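User: Hello! I'm new to structural biology and keep hearing that structure can be predicted from sequence alone. Could you demonstrate with Alanine--tRNA ligase? Please show me the input and the output so I can see what each looks like.

Assistant: Of course. The first part below is the input, the amino acid sequence of Alanine--tRNA ligase. The second part is the output, the predicted structure written as tokens.
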Amino acid sequence: MKSVNEIRSSFVDYFRGKGHEGVASGPLVPRNDPTLMFTNAGMVQFKNVFTGVEKRPYSTATTSQKCVRAGGKHNDLDNVGFTARHLTFFEMLGNFSFGDYFKDEAIAYAWELVTKDFELPKDKLLVTIYSEDDEAHAIWKKVAGFSDDRIIRIPTSDNFWSMGDTGPCGPCSEIFIDRGEHIWGGPPGSPEEDGDRFLEFWNLVFMQYEQQADGSRLELPRPSIDTGMGLERMAAVLQGVESIFETDMFRHLIDATASVVGKAPTDETVASYRVIADHLRSMSFLIAEGVLPSNEGRGYVLRRIMRRAMRHATLLGTNEAAIYKLVPALVREMAQAYPELSQGEKLITETIHLEEERFLKTLSRGLQILDEQAGSLGEGDTLDGETAFKLYDTFGFPLDLTQDALRNRGIGVDVSGFQNAMARQKAEARANWSGSGEAATDAIWFGIADRVGATEFLGYETEDAEGEV
Ligand code: ATP
Ligand code: MG
Ligand code: MG
Ligand code: MG
């Protein structure tokens, strides 16, 4: 059985064998794109190549890209631990054509790789296409011999990708596997599609238009290909397990957690182990790139991920710093593919340890305040936004931590009250801001916060805008 590390190599080797340039993962903090919080897809490092602004010495490429979806447009944070397929940090395997091959080859490669090299059962596979994409329909029929009911036409933007309001865009086609009736869920387009029976593992994007500002679309003279396969999802499929968290890599991380907390997971506690294993990966990779926990922007999303993992560690009964002890296990699993982990091991360990000490110091005081304020509340009540904000501001309780702590008592939190308090504080901070001396940078950051709203900027948006690779 192939390990996660072997599956990564198989994918990249397959496309290198087809003449693709093997390119290293781009950074998680995208360069030259302050509007994007974290790299969330393989195409991010190639944006300027697709638009033609930048030239490379190759016209096809393959990568395994580090991705984080924990804030902004793609936010899977709240899914983690509760679905079988979502992580905040994952690796997206991709093949790219920059005006080289197009739909025919992209579909033929995908089919060959999954049915020959990965030996997936053909009769369990099905695909979605954009409803108007008759070309993709015909190619899938020819290449895979699918009957019409296994090529599902989706009319929504889920199957139409665009880079932004203008620029390259086009239909996409997603590949799913039916993992059997014993797993709840329905095929894409059905009311039960959010279940895990039909697992989406690969998205092929056919960039064939250029969106104009006036709403019209021009045909690109040399259309391009951008694909993304979730490595961990593929591993779950190939290893015959239901969830990403049962693959070899996650089993090792969960075992390490069990030995640090001194307890094996049970049905009641397994979600905490999963959250910790996932969040350990996101926080370590972000710190390795120099992101540090703070109360602003990217640093705040990182802090939120870290504190969430730490809160789950306390739920498992630890009352001293524990997460930092898991770093060696992660280095063992992933440093061969990502040497920045071993290079940054000391920084990662110390940053996590320090944040844990800080967190534990304020946790008990914060929980006490929460108890006092929420003590008289009962099922169906709401904690006021000012208190939630005070917990955030003074005790470093991210909003979702407060929500988490109250959830099992059936108490909600006034989110818009929280956001108002936050916005008021931001306005005051800005009025007092003397600037970093870099006017352009300040303008960019404040500009983003204004445009997307302070709360989304901080990663509070929970809606998952999909369909983007
Ligand atoms: P889903 O509908 O399951 O949330 P998606 O449509 O948002 O997935 P894409 O944007 O199409 O995902 O990304 C391409 C591939 O990356 C997906 O087919 C999947 O294999 C993988 N992927 C996406 N999000 C995650 C995640 N949060 N965790 C692990 N893998 C993911
Ligand atoms: Mg998604
Ligand atoms: Mg998709
Ligand atoms: Mg999807």
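User: So the tokens describe the shape?

Assistant: Right, they're a compact way of writing down the 3D structure. Reading them back into a model, for example: The radius of gyration is 23 Å.
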